[in-house]
Known about the structure:
Strand content: 25-35%
Radius of gyration: 20 Å
Distance between the termini: 37 Å
Structural class: alpha+beta
Number of helices: 5
Largest sheet: 8 strands, mixed
Amino acid sequence: xxxxxxxxxxxxxxxxxxxxxxxxxxxxxxxxxxxxxxxxxxxxxxxxxxxxxxxxxxxxxxxxxxxxxxxxxxxxxxxxxxxxxxxxxxxxxxxxxxxxxxxxxxxxxxxxxxxxxxxxxxxxxxxxxxxxxxxxxxxxxxxxxxxxxxxxxxxxxxxxxxxxxxxxxxxxxxxxxxxxxxxxxxxxxxxxxxxxxxxxxxxxxxxxxxxxxxxxxxxxxxxxxxxxxxxxxxxxxxxxxxxxxxxxxx
Length: 250
C-alpha cells in the first residue's frame, strides 16, 4: 500500500483527499485497503496509457479502420492529474463486475463524501422520474454480459427504509420482489440491498427490467467518521444497478 502511494505521487496523481481517505480507512479495514490498492494501480496504469496514447497520436495522422463484429467494449471517463477528461476503452474481455460491498464501501461512500474518482463509472440520474426504457441503450455496458447500468440517485427519505415497497415513475412502478438483503463486511452490516422489478402502470405482470438498490447502513462503524454534511447525503442517496433481461446473448 505505501509503495503504491509513493508510485502514485511519482506518476503525478497527487489528490490529497484521495490519499488521506485511503490512509485513514485502510488501517481500519483490510477490504478498503484492497479497494484502494486496485484504484491506485488502475490510476498508475491509466497514466502510462495516456502518455503512450498522446505519443502515438502525435506520430499518426489517421485512425485504423474499426474491426468488424467486435463485442461491446467497456469505456470509462477518466481524469488525469491536471483534471483533464479522457475516455478509456478497455480491451475486449474486461468487465466491470463489482461486489456488493465494493458498491457500498467505495462507490457509494465516495459519492457521499464528494470524492471524485479518477475513473468515472457511475453518473447521477433521477431514476424515479424516468421509466427504464428512457435510459440510453449505450449505458448498459457493465456486468458479465454487458447488460447492466449503474447510477446514483437521490430519493425521498421515506424510501430509505426496509418497509418501503415501491418506487413510482412516470408510467409505472418499481416493486420490491424479495426481502431486503444485508450487505456484510467483516461480520458487520454495512448496507442493504433492495431487489425490485418494473411494472407498467395497470399491468399485473412484471417487465424484464430489474434493479438492485443499495443504501448505506448509517449505524455501521465504517461511516462513523463522516461529518454532518455527509450524513445528510447518506440519508438521500442510493446506488442503483439496473438490468434488462434479454433472450439474445451479447
